[in-house]
Design goal:
The complex is a heterotrimer.
Chain A: H1 4-28, H2 35-38, H3 57-86, H4 88-110
Helix pairs in contact in A: 3-4
Chain B: H1 7-21, H2 26-63, H3 79-88, H4 100-115, E1 122-124, E2 127-128, H5 135-156, H6 160-191, H7 196-201, H8 207-210, H9 212-226, H10 237-240, H11 250-275, H12 284-287, H13 289-313, H14 319-348, H15 353-395
Antiparallel strand pairs in B: 1-2
Helix pairs in contact in B: 1-2, 2-3, 2-11, 2-13, 4-5, 4-11, 5-6, 6-9, 6-14, 9-11, 11-13, 14-15
Chain C: H1 3-24, H2 28-48, H3 52-77, H4 92-111, H5 129-138, H6 144-165
Helix pairs in contact in C: 1-2, 2-3
Classes of the chains: A mainly alpha, B mainly alpha, C mainly alpha.
């Protein structure tokens, strides 16, 4: 049997439990909404302008850098699995792979993109 | 084959017999048995989770020289159940202007992302949800769903604090995912497999002895992934009130809260599985699978306790410091460590066990010492630069 | 029809529906979330194909990184996260023709492919796809050059991103 069926079951049950808990709470709890109760909680002060505001571009830069390193490390996993059987040559290949990327990190660093300006 | 030696298989075989006798096709019966098994495991986890509320509150009280919950039942043990009842009968408030569908899905996804982690936790030699050959990457994949739930919660609440909190939390999570992935490579290299079961089986010597620095980096990255102090700047009570879950109330907030506690405990468990031999403890796991589960839970609690200790001891750090710490220190260090581990593993694998362990351990210590020296000399130079500037300014 | 086929059909339908919602929904964050659903559907498709590694990588990279990047991008660029402009521009008919032609071309090409009609042989016992992949990536007879070039490509992407984001006017250039 495909082991992923069990993973699927974990997803199903993992979703059913919170749905059930929230559902029961929804059934048991009172439902008396009013405008004051539903107002946005910002320490009693009315929200100024739109809540969905624009954000600092720096978050995006970090997400981009993260994406590159994420993909890179994922590439390394099959290498790591096979490392014991492959010997020194494969190790050196992997080290070259990492070093090239560390060079990219150093470049980003030197350009000041890792500063939270 | 008795129940005490292999309970899961005995129970499954017995149920299979019962179901097929009812005229159910074998595949359907197997899926039903799997469903029941998963349901039981997750129910136990939820009960454990309720217990964790008590543990966390009691431990934080001890760290802060208080008593903690002590009114309901012996040692306040009934307190979490009272909390649950309160959460159940509380009115569920949806803020005006919230994006209702996304707002409601987020807490469910948050809880799910934690529960599905237990699919790859090897509880005992014979008790394991799924033996996936990509186990360690599955941990990160589940974390990706958790990240998504946070950004959904923050965005759909229609609250600026929630959105800022979500952004910060996601920035922390994605940043620290890089060193976490990198340290996950170390058990993979040492065990020659990504499967969690194979990693535990490979630990005749606990990997913490072969890669102490890797274990440390994993713990730091795990704490950051959990969004706990010192990386809890998403919460930032004094500035953001509560962060991404500020607008949630009742059971929906309960899901985030319980999910966070169980997440911390789960990462304590993964720390044990990856670096401290999982359910293995000097052959104790061979005696009985129940003993193996007890060993794993004990180790997981130690990891959880350590995470709590860090949480209630250290101060919150600023976002720029946090990102600098990750990208300028932890990430290069983790990559250096992979290279050193791979190289040492290849060079020493043919030699005696003693030499292998000593070599691996010393190489880790050397890398850690080198990193600390570089950081120290850099900070000294920075300090001198700033102090020099201050002296010049004072001279004017 | 086997269980696997039923699962595949359901997943394929959900994926296509999610894909359709990505392009039709007005709210950009909703579009990004529908994209996540579509990407998750693709991951499940990989699972059905017994491609464990690709399935997890799909979730780790596409949902964990690229979808987050998209959501960040939407939140950074739009003050109001609703798309007000028309959803079609005047070249829509050209795009439609191109899409139909691409689909036709792919259909034509895959007609002659034997994989469409043949059932895949099951893995031999003890076959580990990950270690085969690891072998192929680093052995000189395999894909060692593409493996290293991938690293260079990633660095190129990083440098490009830094270059685009680099704004000398706001003074956060390197020291």
């Amino acid at each position: 049997m495909n082991p992923w069926i069990f993973v699927g079951l974990f997803f199903v049950v993992g979703l059913l439990i919170p749905v059930g808990a929230i559902g029961i709470a929804w059934l048991l709890g009172p439902k008396k909404p009013n405008p004051i109760k539903q107002s946005v909680y910002e320490c009693g002060i009315e929200t100024v302008g739109e809540s969905w505001v624009q954000f600092k571009a720096q978050y995006y830069i970090f997400a981009l850098v993260f994406l590159v390193f994420d993909v890179e490390t994922v590439f390394l996993f099959p290498w790591a699995v096979k490392l014991g059987a492959l010997g020194l040559f494969a190790v050196i290949e992997g080290i070259i792979f990492i070093l090239i990327l560390v060079a990219g990190l150093v470049y980003t660093w030197r350009k000041g993109m890792l500063e939270w300006a | 084959m008795s129940f005490w030696n292999d309970p899961l298989k005995v129970a499954a075989d017995w149920l299979l017999g019962v179901f097929t006798a009812w005229g159910m096709p074998e595949l359907a019966a197997n899926i039903l048995i799997g469903f029941l098994g998963v349901l039981i495991l997750i129910s136990i986890l939820m009960v454990l989770d309720i217990g964790l509320v008590w543990v966390e509150r009691k431990v934080v009280a001890r760290f802060q020289d208080r008593i903690g919950p002590n009114r309901l039942g012996p040692f306040g043990l009934i307190q979490p159940f009272a909390d649950i009842i309160k959460l159940m009968i509380k009115e569920d408030i949806t803020p005006a202007g919230a994006d209702k569908v996304v707002y409601n899905i987020a807490p469910m996804l948050s809880m799910m992302s934690v529960l599905i982690l237990w699919a790859v936790v090897p509880l005992a030699p014979t008790i394991l949800g799924v033996d996936l050959n990509i186990g360690v990457l599955y941990i990160i994949a589940a974390g990706a769903i958790g990240t998504l739930s946070i950004i959904m919660a923050g965005w759909s609440s229609n609250n600026k604090y929630a959105l800022i909190g979500a952004f910060r939390q996601v920035a922390v999570m994605i940043s620290f995912e890089v060193p976490m992935l990198a340290t996950l490579l170390i058990p993979t290299i040492l065990a020659g497999s990504m499967g969690t079961a194979a990693i535990v089986e490979g630990q005749d010597i606990w990997y913490v002895l072969l890669a102490p620095l890797g274990a440390l980096i994993f713990l730091v990255a795990a704490i950051a992934e959990l969004g706990r102090a010192p990386f809890d700047l998403a919460e930032g009570e004094s500035e953001l009130v509560s962060g991404y879950n500020i607008e949630y109330s009742g059971m929906k907030f309960g899901m985030f809260y319980a999910g966070e506690l169980l997440h911390a405990f789960t990462f304590g468990g993964f720390w044990a599985i990856l670096f401290f031999g999982g359910y293995r403890f000097f052959g104790l796991e061979k005696v009985s699978p129940f003993l193996a589960i007890a060993v794993l839970l004990f180790k997981a609690f130690i990891g959880y306790w350590l995470i709590m200790w860090v949480r209630y001891t250290l101060l919150r750090i600023r976002i720029d410091h946090m990102l600098a710490f990750n990208w300028k220190f932890l990430t290069p260090l983790a990559f250096t460590l992979i290279m050193v581990t791979a190289l040492m593993n290849a060079l020493l694998s043919g030699t005696s066990t003693w030499l292998y362990v000593t070599g691996m351990f010393l190489s880790n210590v050397l890398v850690a010492w080198g990193a600390l020296e570089i950081a120290r000399s850099y900070s000294r130079r920075e300090r001198e630069r700033i102090e020099g500037k201050r002296i010049v300014e004072a001279g004017h | 029809m086997t269980g696997e086929q039923i699962v595949f059909l359901v997943v394929a339908f959900v994926t296509l529906f999610a894909g359709l919602m990505v392009v039709t929904t007005r709210n950009l964050v909703h579009a990004a979330l529908w994209l996540v659903a579509a990407l998750f559907g693709v991951a499940v498709t990989y699972v059905i194909l017994h491609a464990n590694f690709l399935a997890v990588v799909q979730v780790v990279v596409y949902i964990g990184a690229i979808a987050i990047l998209f959501i960040f991008a939407v939140m950074l660029t739009r003050r109001d996260m609703r798309d007000q402009g028309p959803q079609m521009n005047k070249n829509w008919w050209f795009g439609a023709v191109l899409a139909v032609l691409t689909f036709g071309g792919l259909y034509f090409l895959l007609q002659g492919w034997e994989g469409m009609t043949k059932t895949a042989t099951s893995y031999p016992v003890g076959f580990d796809a990950i270690s085969e992949l690891g072998n192929a990536l680093v052995s000189p007879a395999g894909y060692v050059l593409p493996f290293e070039v991938a690293s260079v490509l990633l660095v190129a992407a990083l440098v490009g991103a830094v270059y685009v984001a680099f704004n000398p006017r706001n003074g956060n250039s390197g020291k």
